[in-house]
Amino acid sequence: MPRNLDLTALRSFVAIADAGGVTRAAGYLNLTQSAVSMQIRRLEDGLGVALLDRSARKVVPTAAGEHLLSYARRMLALNDEVYGLLTRARYEGDLTLGVPHDIVYPAIPQVLQRFAAEFPKVKIRLLSSFTRMLKDQFARGECDVIVTTEDSVDPGGETLTELPLVWVGAPGGVAWRQRPLPLAYEQRCIFRQGVQERLDAAGIPWILAVDSDNTRTVEATVSADLAVHTILEGSEPRHVERINHGGALPELARMKVNLYAAPAVRNPAMTAFTQLIRVAYGGKSARHVGFDPAEPAPLHSAAHA
After folding, report:
1. CATH number of the domain where residue 275 is located
2. pLDDT in tens, the chain (305 residues)
């Protein structure tokens, strides 16, 4: 007798694999954690294999889960393509979204994927730059939506969440122990001045080992253990790690992740798009940001410093 895989459970499985945990996946899917966990248990029971390794801090697929993941993505993509073509085809156009490079992952790929499935004829242009440059572009009408990292929020914007800055360095690195402390920053990084002021207040000498206009230069220097850097908690790239300095470095400020959307653009696509961004960055459920739980969420579009 043929057995069918539950697409809803597969969607939860893929969301957990992408988000690295049930809690974040549940927020993205607008479900409770218990509902997501139950779907995964049913999926595992039906297949007779464990799909997720829950032993580490970050939940990852098992070998069987990795095998299923590729199929699940294709099945969901085909399902969403058909659904989008038949239900959202009347919305067309272009949207431009601007996001600082250091907070693109993991939220933005999830937002773009879901939006593309629901509005297949709306083309999204993604810009990655510094916050100051994105705000200038937004003011000139070159972006429909921007996400920023700032210590405050301007009129017309909304704060999605607040996150602390954390020190990062090479895995197992020792550069953070050096004095003067070698720092690596881009020239227009909005975090840079505040970090240097905190070091001065703590009496810790520092030098600017890298003063670049290129993100890759900073990343390469830090991953080579030649300098340290600061980044928003949760957005650390894989080739660096948070520094467990035990108080040897000062605690850093909390920064706001803000959303600005063009007031002139108001249609179901734009509304749904900004709602997905709220969920992705703020962890809010659909009920808090205006989704109708009975309907698929509709979406519209276009760094730090």
Report:
1. 3.40.190.290
2. 457 899 999 999 998 988 888 887 887 787 889 999 999 999 999 999 999 998 877 889 999 999 999 999 999 888 877 776 676 556 778 899 999 988 888 789 989 988 888 888 889 999 998 899 999 999 988 999 999 999 999 998 999 999 999 999 999 999 999 999 999 999 888 899 999 999 999 999 999 999 888 888 999 999 999 999 999 998 888 889 999 999 999 999 999 999 999 876 667 888 889 999 998 887 543 333 333 323 333 222 233 34
51 and 196 inside one domain: no
Here the tokens at position 161 are 């969440």
Question: What residues pair up with 183 in beta bridges, in sequence order?
Answer: 208, 228
- Quote the number of domains for the chain: 2
Give the single-character DSSP code of 84: H
**3-class state of residue 278 by DSSP:** helix
Tokens 């207040």 correspond to what residue?
201
Calpha distance 115→80 (Å, rounded): 10
| CB of 265 closer than 8 Å to CB of 210 | no
Domain final residue, candidates 54, 87, 120: 87
Q: List phi, psi (to 5°) of 66.
A: -60, -40
Distances (CA, A) of 39 to 44, 60, 88, 244: 9, 16, 27, 36
pTM of the model: 0.65
- Boundaries of domain holding 10: 1-87
Number of CB atoms found within 10 A of residue 248's CB = 14
Residue 15, classed as helix, strand or coil, is: helix
